Amino acid sequence: MVEIRRMFFGGNTANGFYSLHDNIIGLNRNRLFILKGMPGGGKSSLMKKIAEHMIEEGFDIEYHHCPSDAESIDSIFINKLNIAIADGTFPHVIDPTYPGLIDKLIDLGRFIDSEKLMMSKEEIIKAKKNNKIAYRRAFAYFKSAKIIYEEIVQNNKISVDFSKINYITRQLTEEVFSKEVEYHKEISPTERHMFSNANTPVGFIDYTETILKWIPTIYYIEGEIGTGKSTLIKRIMEESKIRGYSVEIYHNSTIPEKIETLIIKDINTCITSNKLGLDFPHKKINLNEYFNEKVKNDKDYEVYNLLIDNAISNLKTARKNHEILEKCYKPTVDYDGVNKVKEEILEEILTYVN
After folding, report:
1. Angle in degrees, CA 260, 197, 328, rounded to 5
2. Which end of the chain is more exposed for a tag (fewer CB within 10 A), N or C?
3. What's the whole-model pTM score?
């Protein structure tokens, strides 16, 4: 069965646009194709078509979605071939580490008819300016939401019995690492950071299900804000590193310093605070048992959610401006040329199959 996973390597967060694009593929890669170009220039469609072809060939695929438009693809990764294709344009700027060796830079901008594009000059400049304003406002609301979130943490943690949570953490750590290693350890353990969900113009999009469905052992950590879910997962992550295990670390989509999901690849085990963990066979660790809910301030939660809603509203405005840019660029693009590039990339990828 072909394994298809979906995730994000960029996020609209309280820290602004948060890039984890260096984690798309390791430096030991066979090939990284970096696409440069313009809005509506066919980068996402090119990657989707190549991914579809490789799935038909029986290869597992990772789709890396765009947090500013979850229907679009920022990159794809063909794990077995250790090959990736990525959109290297702003804000997820990627430059080749080994240009001409294992990294190939492909400029799709050469398929633009500049004379046609000049007819939309004023519209493009205006849309870009408005886009920048919308993102500035969105990130300001996310940043404000983080301040309120930290206030909720400080308020709630007063009524948490952390001595018992520390005991549970030690028990869980012993249980997790009592499992025998299922995979041969890599020469150099890998540590890969990403998001399984994102704040997007259409709201919160969560692809965690596509990640958890391939993991046989799942621990779901339930707990109110401030009960230490992220801290617990971080402790198990650190123990994984000490043991030399390879890990995938999925960050919180609004506050990226917090960890939401950890996958320990060597023992095929996941520890997650994402509620989608409830949809799969799991063991629940309920930290709320050591928390007195009477301390909760519902007004703070309301303010936090309102700020997130306002941030999303501004992401929606930014998306509308991006659609204006795409509308301006699309009529000027030679898509036959883009399609030819797609065929050339696919032909090169297939040389690695055997």
Report:
1. 150
2. C
3. 0.95
